[in-house]
């Protein structure tokens, strides 16, 4: 009986093996031949299923990327999408081969070909079916790690304990969906602008924000100016003329934008965002704001959810920065290092003061020279400057001393010419060349090319002295022009220097200052003011250069300007009709004239002394 059982078991095993190894493979091969069209039908059905899942996953990926907090798409999702693309190409290739064979063997099928292709179709169908099955991911992506300490590498300032701590706090606050406004405050020259520029750069590079808009607000926080700067970043034009209408246009556009960070730099007073047209981030729409200010009260009045203080450099950090900028290496004598360290302490940890003063003194090679510099700095007296606190006086004195250490008087005058521009304003070097020519800054030069060489040399020297900053702005004129700019505190110092009674070059750059001793000033610059009517009864007997933007000008105002040599007028479309220039014919010394957005030039033929004429943006 046992023997019969064993024989039966052996017979069943042999039968199973014969089915598995002989019958089933034959059945599969026959299926490739006689169910070929069904295999193609199954392939196309799975292709449809896969395309449906592909669309769904791509929509999920797009939604994840649109979130204000950047999402990093998981590697397995990217891999799946790549595999889907490849599988769709395989299906397309198989369809092409099927159509090609139909044309070649329309009467009698090629059984070898059908067998081989059917096998590939079934394999691809199974693979696509697996892709469809694997398309339901637990998560599409995860929140990106925002840049940390190692990303704070600006060349303009060393990464101090205070700046890196502030940097990390800002980045952490940007992760929080509940935070839409961050305030950074600290004294002038401490490095707030450099810090927030670095934040803007890194958040844009990492994809946290699609647009980063930087606006210099400054003391004269004119709403229209802020609106114009934001519109420039958005490459948009206003259709409305009123402040309220423009605010409505900006609001609608910013709500449509994806992930926008707006940096409002150098705020002195509270500004109502709704008046500008800035929607705060809420429910996945709107903007996040970072503002910088010298006053903590501004952060509080603006209702910043996160307020971050930024302190001066610690003593060891300040000394390290000073030594680097003054090029005091290990080979310098102990006596020089001791005096230099005393000078560095007078900067009180302010980076802008350290950098400018160290650059000015880097050619000092003796301990006596350093001692003289220290005593001069200690004995300097600072007259009253508007809005300056006691803690910032040393910064002004250090920058003033850097100015005094400039070797050439022409370089000093080029520096003061830069003070004609508003703080953080782009200064086109070619404009300085025209002004220098008109003012005969370099005497009776033979050609404008000669003046250009002198100005470029002065600008490079000022940059090496850290009194001017490089400004990498888009060259709108396409002429490859170079640009520079002044730090806001350096700009204040330049204006202070010209305001002293013994100065031979006095600048008035604020509207409210025009009525104060205007008759003795050499230069008036109102390039960043709102639309105003320029006074026509002021006596400007010593005025040599006048730069106006968006001002209504009556010809009578030029009657007393017998010394005027350089004139620049930029107007908007709504005030060209009230600008009268026929009185320019009465200016006996006018050498350089810049007119922007003008229409009528009939008076130009009578300007006998004119040597440089610029008609930017004007219509003939």
UniProtKB/TrEMBL annotation:
This is NB-ARC domain-containing protein. It holds the Pfam family NB-ARC. Gene3D superfamilies: Helical domain of apoptotic protease-activating factors, P-loop containing nucleotide triphosphate hydrolases, Winged helix-like DNA-binding domain superfamily/Winged helix DNA-binding domain. Residues 40-67 form a coiled coil. Keywords: ATP-binding, Coiled coil, Leucine-rich repeat, Nucleotide-binding, Plant defense, Repeat. InterPro entries: Apaf_helical, NB-ARC, P-loop_NTPase, Plant_NBS-LRR, WH-like_DNA-bd_sf. It comes from the Eukaryota. It comes from Gossypium arboreum. Residues 166-327 form the NB-ARC domain. PANTHER family: AAA+ ATPASE DOMAIN-CONTAINING PROTEIN (PTHR33463:SF203), NB-ARC DOMAIN-CONTAINING PROTEIN-RELATED (PTHR33463).
């Amino acid at each position: 009986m046992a023997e019969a059982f064993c024989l039966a078991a052996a017979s069943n095993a042999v039968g199973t093996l014969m089915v598995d190894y002989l019958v089933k493979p034959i059945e599969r091969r026959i299926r490739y031949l006689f169910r070929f069209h069904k295999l193609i039908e199954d392939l196309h059905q799975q292709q449809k299923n896969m395309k449906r899942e592909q669309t769904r996953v791509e929509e999920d990926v797009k939604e994840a990327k649109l979130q204000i907090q950047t999402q990093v798409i998981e590697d397995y999702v990217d891999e799946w999408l790549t595999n889907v693309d490849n599988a769709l190409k395989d299906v397309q290739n198989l369809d092409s081969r099927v159509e090609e064979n139909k044309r070649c063997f329309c009467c009698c099928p090629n059984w070898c070909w059908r067998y081989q292709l059917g096998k590939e179709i079934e394999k691809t169908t199974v693979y696509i079916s697996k892709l469809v099955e694997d398309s339901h991911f637990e998560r599409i992506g995860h929140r990106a790690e925002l840049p940390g300490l190692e990303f704070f590498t600006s060349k303009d300032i060393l990464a101090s304990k205070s700046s890196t701590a502030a940097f990390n706090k800002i980045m952490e606050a940007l992760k929080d969906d509940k935070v839409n406004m961050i305030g950074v405050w600290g004294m002038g020259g401490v490095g707030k602008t450099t810090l927030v520029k670095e934040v803007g750069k890194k958040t844009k590079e990492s994809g946290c924000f699609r647009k980063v808009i930087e606006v210099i607000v400054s003391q004269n926080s004119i709403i229209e100016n802020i609106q114009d700067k934001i519109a420039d970043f958005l490459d948009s034009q206003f259709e409305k003329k009123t402040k309220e209408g423009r605010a409505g246009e900006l609001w609608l556009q910013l709500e449509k934008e994806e992930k926008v960070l707006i940096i409002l730099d150098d705020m002195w007073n509270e500004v109502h965002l709704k008046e500008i047209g800035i929607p705060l981030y809420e429910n996945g729409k709107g903007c996040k704001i970072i503002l910088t200010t010298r006053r903590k009260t501004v952060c509080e009045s603006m209702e910043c959810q996160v307020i971050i203080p930024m302190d001066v450099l610690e003593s060891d950090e300040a000394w390290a920065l000073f030594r680097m900028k003054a090029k005091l290496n290990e080979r310098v004598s102990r006596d020089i290092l001791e005096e230099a360290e005393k000078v560095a302490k007078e900067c009180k940890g302010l980076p802008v003061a350290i950098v400018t003063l160290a650059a000015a003194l880097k050619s000092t090679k003796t301990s006596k020279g350093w001692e003289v510099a220290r005593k001069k700095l200690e004995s300097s007296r600072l007259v009253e400057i508007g809005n300056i606190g006691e803690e910032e006086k040393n910064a002004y004195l250090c920058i003033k001393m850097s100015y005094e250490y400039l070797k050439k008087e022409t370089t000093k005058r080029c520096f003061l010419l830069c003070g004609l521009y508003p703080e953080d304003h782009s200064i086109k070097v070619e404009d300085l060349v025209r002004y220098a020519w008109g003012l005969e800054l370099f005497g009776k030069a033979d050609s404008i090319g000669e003046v250009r060489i002198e100005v470029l040399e002065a600008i490079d020297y000022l940059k090496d002295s850290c009194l001017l900053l490089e400004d990498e702005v888009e060259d709108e004129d396409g002429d490859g022009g170079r640009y520079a700019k002044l730090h806001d505190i350096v700009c204040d110092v330049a204006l202070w220097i010209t305001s002293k009674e013994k100065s031979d070059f006095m600048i008035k750059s604020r509207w409210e200052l025009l009525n104060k001793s205007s008759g003795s000033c050499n230069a008036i610059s109102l390039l960043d003011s709102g639309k105003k009517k320029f006074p026509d009864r002021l006596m400007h007997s010593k005025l040599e250069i006048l730069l106006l933007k968006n001002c209504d000008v009556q010809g009578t105002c030029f009657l007393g300007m017998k010394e005027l040599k350089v004139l620049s007028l930029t107007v908007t479309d709504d005030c060209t009709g009230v600008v009268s220039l026929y009185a320019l014919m009465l200016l006996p010394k006018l050498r350089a004239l810049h007119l922007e957005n003008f229409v009528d030039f009939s008076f130009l033929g009578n300007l006998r002394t004119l040597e440089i004429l610029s008609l930017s943006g004007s219509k003939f």
